[in-house]
Write a structure and sequence with these properties.
Length: 433
Amino acid sequence: MDKFVIDGARPLAGEVHCSGSKNSALPILAAALLCDGESVISGVPRLRDVDSLLAILRELGMSAERRADGDILLKVEDLEPVTARYELVSTMRASFCVLGPLVGRRRRARVSLPGGCVIGVRPVDLHIRGLRALGAEVRVENGYVVAEAPRLRGAKIFLSGQFGPTVTGTANILMAAVLADGRTIIENAACEPEVQDLGNFLAAAGARIAGIGTHRLVIDGVKSLRGVTWRVIPDRIEAGTFLLAGAITRGAVTVRDCEPDHLSALLAALTEIGVPTEVGADFIRTGPADGFRPYHLTTLPYPGFPTDLQAQMMALLALADGICAVTERIYPDRFMHVAELNRMGADIRKEGANALIHGVEHLSGAPVMASDLRASAALVNAALAARGRTEIGRVYHIDRGYEKIVEKLLGLGAAIERVDDKKLVGATADSEG
Ligand code: EPZ
């Protein structure tokens, strides 16, 4: 099993390319289940989660292969299979988004419940509520969601729970609705850029969707969708992670090929904190800060500050000149990184869905353990800034969401090495994403 060894306290400098979005690519790959003919998807990052989903899609009767140029070719060969097995779904929660397309096109689905994961309980009640509203019969049986719908009929659906809209829930219901009879209205739909990308992909395939990018999606069902060629949007969370890596090391990092409009909340926060930024059409640059002004952060649905950058921002705020507060409004338990950051010298106290941070002058290297994808990214950033050496165990978490992270950080001047640590025990494939 691999771990990262990082010698910190070196300002990062230079340019890094932003990969395609994992959370955009996964539902779009699943949406190809709805299309007649071949789809060609570009910009899909080379990640374990993508390979896991391709394995599920193959079991669902698709040909799915990655060409040498990186593009992924997908085509439905067999409409019969409807089961996404526990063994595959449990490795990656996002694979639950095959549910909507299966019900939409094959009128039947048997998809394993993804289960909880370290960032929280993560129920799927809204997905089920939405499918029922469209006329599907849905039951939970032996750990599987079984949905049957001889006909799906458009309906008005309020798709929001106590923590606001749901991203993959909106994706699932949208994908089920595009081939339903009549009009579906999703109220309080998620409007994250990844949901927009899916909506635009479906529209290019022939779906009729109004309101993409808003909280109200109006979908008029069509008879069929065609295969399309599509490039997924840049990964705003990867871009944000590198910008925060530049900021925390007081370096000057330029992230190329990103979409600055998707990172407005982060840019506003960096400005408040005192990190200089420069924004171009497809790049963002951070400059060295003199210090980090205290900042109170609240995660919110898009366009608010993303929960997927909360941990990385907390690592930076650990070095603020004063007291900061972080409130997690999406996943109240997403604070696994707090204890590990404290092992590196941070002073962070968690109380319910809040964390209180007393900024310290410096962090120091320590052996730490990655617990989930974004928490691992926070530990990497903290290690890049910390004095001395940090060893991060269980880095398979980070491999799920960051394409070539070691190579990219080396390109920015980081002292990071991936080493095989056979002595490390206890890893399991935890479901997140
Ligand atoms: C997506 O997860 C992302 N994953 C997550 O990124 C991200 O953290 C999250 O959206 C929020 O932005 C993918 O896109 C693959 P939600 P998702 O349904 O769709 C509650 C990463 O690090 N809820 O929008 O599963 C839920 O518990 C990952 O890349 C219900 O109550 O998240 C949460 O509190 C981690 N019932 C809130 O809604 C439901 O049926 C938002 O979750 C569904 C969700």
